[in-house]
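Teaching note: in complex prediction, the entire set of molecules is handled at once rather than each chain in isolation. The prompt given to students was simply: 'Predict the structure of this complex.' The entities are:
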Amino acid sequence: MKKSHVTTTINGEPVEFLCEPQQTLLDVLRDELNLTGSKEGCSSGDCGACSVIMDGRVVCTCLALGVEAEGRSIDTIEGMAEGETLHPLQRWFLEEAALQCGFCTPGFLVAAKALLDRNPDPTETEVRYWLAGNLCRCTGYDKIVRAVLSAGAEMRGQ
Amino acid sequence: MDGQTRDFKWIGKRTVRPDGVDKVTGRANFGADFSLPGMLVGKVLRSPHAHARILSIDTGKARVLPGVKAVITAADLPDIPSEEAHFGEDPTDFRYVSHNVMARGKALYDGHVVAAVAATSEAIAEAALGLIEVEYDILPHVLDVEDAMKPDAPLVIEDLITQGITPTPKKPSNIAKRIQYDLGDIAAGFKKADVVIKRRFTTKPVHQGYIEPHAVVASTSEDGQSLVWCSSQGHFMVRASCAKLLGLDVSQLRVMPAEIGGGFGGKVTVYQEPLAVLMSRKTGRPVKMVMSREEVFRGTGPTSGSVMTVKIGATKKGKITAAEATLAFQAGAYPGSPVGLGCMTAFAPYDLENVKTVGYDVVVNRPKATAYRAPGAPLAAFAAESVLDELAKALNIAPLELREKNAAREGTQAPYGPRFGVIGYVATLQALRDHPHYMAPLGPNQGRGIASGFWMNFGGQSSAVINVNEDGTVVVTLGHPDIGGSRASMALMAAEVLGIDITKVRAIIGDTHSIGLSDITGGSKVTFASGMAVVKAANDVTGQLRARAAMIWEVDADGVVWEDGHAVASSTNVGEFEPLSLAQIAAMAAKTGGPISGHASINAKGAGPGFGTHICDVEVDRETGRVTVVRYTAIQDAGRAIHPSYVEGQLQGGAAQGIGWALNEEYVYGDDGRLQNPGFLDYRMPVASDLPMIDTVIVEVPNPNHPFGVRGVGEVPIVPPLAAVANAIEDAIGVRMTDLPMSPPRILAALEDKL
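The expected output is the structure of the full assembly:
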């Protein structure tokens, strides 16, 4: 099948790629662009491990096509730290031990960033419902929720 | 050095884990993140039938499809003899592992692999699977233990003779094994009882639910050396299994441990790894195989479903006089359910004179059951701790008090034989009594339940190497995959013994060619066994450092001691010397005999048994039947918490898994024997909005057999929740739920029955 040419922005940088029309955005990120930080856990939009922020919205890349990236702006886990400086969410995930195996972690961080970008002061319940699309089997979510709340507080200057 | 009591510099500190930054930045490489040039995509064809004779497999059309490089069936795998394999908590048999990897003669469950292909793209591989023609003769299937134990049941394995019965049966059956543990005189015990409660329980298979699907890349060079990258709970297990199943020398396989995205027991065996190796050997090209989520559910091991009967008797004063359990566990298609462990653990928290537990390991047309966190124990504890709760109410004694009256202590004989050494069960009960949760008021439609759990914990073979770098930093190489932060605790133990700053210590996992054999990560062994190896290797290093200092000072080696990261003269008699730091000695290593490297390869004995007690508050919506856990506290004896955050994480994660098991998770099969919910949408694991914060209390009753007092931690926390939730529901609505999951339809039905 003829490949499509896609021009997009990933982590602030212009990116071009060729992809097959049926190829998911997740496969493009992982297999074509070597951005393997986004994980494949289910391919059905249920686990959130492949989450990215596309034009400000959290998207499961397993449910998006590569061609849909045309003209969009995509933020992946690989772009979350700025140079050597970790995002406060990344630091708080480490401080609070909010990961065990770490496989779901990129998806949680991306989803949590999207939450704090639009709601800098979420309640615990808001954090829990916002992250309900991300599955973690290791932690029981306790430390993840705490890390997001702590990062939010830090980012608000508290 | 007395590691049990002294103050620590690093043990107990909440440091950032060595692999942490890689995992929050997306850098960490898990099983599916690895690729090689020229790599083929491997895919398997799975049986759509629960039980079917394979009459023929025609791979002709698939083989000639352009881009297809290999097609394999059972005919390509050697027919290996029966041989016991010890990887997980329960022994298995390499022959059965081989048959599970690729069906022989019969497909034994929906999802059983019958063929595999390797092709130049995923689309071609998928197309090739569609061209493989399998002729099946569909056979009657059997899914549940009671049906499978009937004399006229369809035979899953046609020559299976029950073990553990005398005389040995002549006729084959689906009962692979009968197990019995006896203590005292059970009949006499029940005669002494004033109250006897007997109940029957059922549970459904649940999946470990790790978020990372199984993934492997195998590459074979022209000299027959295969390199394997995969995530597993034991790269030495992968090596041994591939060697056995393919008839290779162990040294022909080098297995690189990828980061592992959860396992919980589900990655203690092989599935597609031998197939990837075989196809890479046949094609001379790297082969990558990654399971879909549906394949994970259909083809990899859930834990057993079960039917259990528990009977407990006690005097009016609350002294238990006898406890009896009969457990029948689904093994899946091949023998080896954890029913023996269920028998051992069911009543282990209690000091009992008369105990009888009988277990049946029953094969059925389901995927082979695999270990899941404290295999067998959560099911057994669900039954035992539910009956205890009912018994307490019948005796008008608080459930906590009933447990206190009968608690196992040092010297108590466990129902499976040994006497306990120093254990912390009573300490967990006391911590519960002291916790504000215990007396907190409850709201309307809320109830509170408690339950305890036990796991014996494991030791085993473990290797560690500590290399001292020329600048005084050190690298700790370990042999067990790090599944939940073990590199952090190993680094802490090394820093503690060496007396250096934690930032000077890096911990990594070595591949099978670079570190001595180490058993799987499982059984709650790594912090204990690997920790012992690390401490021994670190002591080896400090011994060498002392010898080097003695050489530099030109004194006897006995005259030098290691204190706080420095070689120090043991007394002024030895001489007046400025202490030498590890870094100073390391810098002079070349002149004093060469590199400094400490090694340890051990078979760790003396794992300290673990006990936990959980308390759970639920709220029941009487209109929908939905149960919400509103407050939860998990208390556990960790012996010594090396890194408390990751101990808490184990308690919280285990509790969450147990809550999912109790309330929602189950394998749903149709009458056709096909799995109906092989996805996360319909297999409902807890999400963040389902759960409250999970409070934890770490009790520390040090294990005298470990240099720092460590007990295994990971398994115990999944043992109490099933009963804790059931007991809380009973407290809320007055109905004893005996069938899992306690999902909304079941709760509604129970409420309607009560009216």
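Point out the following to students. Residues 189 and 322 of chain B are 5 Å apart (CA to CA). The mean pLDDT of chain B is 96.
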